Amino acid sequence: MNTLAYPNVGTVLDRTTRLLKQYYLRAFKEEGVDISTEQWVLLDRLYTEGSASQTELANGTFKDAPTVSRIIDKLAKKKLVERQRFPNDRRRYLVALTTAGRGVHDKLMPRVEQLRKQTWAGLGEEDYHRLQGLLRHIRTNFEEE
C-alpha cells in the first residue's frame, strides 16, 4: 500500500478532536460552568457508574492513572467529586460525585446531548459502528508492537 496516497490520519483526528473540544468548552462556558472536556468525561462516567476507583476510571476513559489523579484533584477542589476509602482496603479510594457534581452534570447534559446530535447529523448507526471499528483497528496496529 502506498501510504502517500492516504492523508495524515493523525492530523485529521487531531483537528477533529480539537474542534469538538472547542465546541464543548464553549457550551460549558455559556452554561456558566468552569470545567474542561477531560473533567466532563470523568463526571459523566461517575454519573453513570455511581462511584469508581481511580484505576477503573483510568481504564474506562483510556487515560493513564496520573492524568486521572490530576483530574480528580481538580474536580475535588471544585467540590464536584469526593474520595472515600475503600471499605476493605485503606490504600485505595472510591471516587464519587457530590451533590454539586450531580447538579453540574444535570445542567450540562442537555447541551452535551445537543452537541452529540450535531456531531452525528447526517450519519447513522452503521457509520458509528464503522468508525468505531476503524479506530479500534488503528489502535490495534500500534498496540501489537
List keywords for this structure.
single chain; about 140 residues; alpha+beta; three-stranded antiparallel beta sheet; 6 helices; about 10% strand; WH-like_DNA-bd_sf; HTH_MarR-typ; transcription
Q: Care to give the gist of this entry?
A:
Keywords: DNA-binding, Transcription, Transcription regulation. With 145 residues, the chain is of the alpha+beta class.
Could you explain the architecture of this structure?
It comes from Neolewinella maritima. Residues 6-140 form the HTH marR-type domain. With 145 residues, the chain is α+β, with helices and mostly antiparallel strands. The chain is 66% helix and 12% strand. The chain is built from 6 helices and 3 strands, in the order ααβααββαα. The chain has helices spanning 9-30, 37-49, 54-61, 65-77, 99-119, 125-143, and strands at residues 51-53, 81-86, 89-97. Strands 1-3-2 form a 3-stranded antiparallel β-sheet. Strand 2 and strand 3 (89-97) form a beta hairpin. Helix 1 (9-30) crosses helix 5 (99-119), helix 2 crosses helix 4 and helix 3 (54-61) crosses helix 4 (65-77). The model has no long low-confidence stretch (mean pLDDT 90).
- Poorly predicted regions are none
Helix coverage percent of residues? 55-70%
Q: Indicate the mean pLDDT.
A: 90
Number of helices: 6
- Radius of gyration (CA) equals 18 Å
Task: Give the strand order, joined by hyphens, for the main sheet.
Answer: 1-3-2
Derived structural class: alpha+beta
Based on DSSP secondary structure assignment, what is the total number of beta strands?
3
Distance between the termini: 19 Å
Strand and helix order: HHEHHEEHH
Note the main sheet: 3 strands, antiparallel
Q: Name the overall outline.
A: globular
* Beta-strand fraction estimate: 5-15%
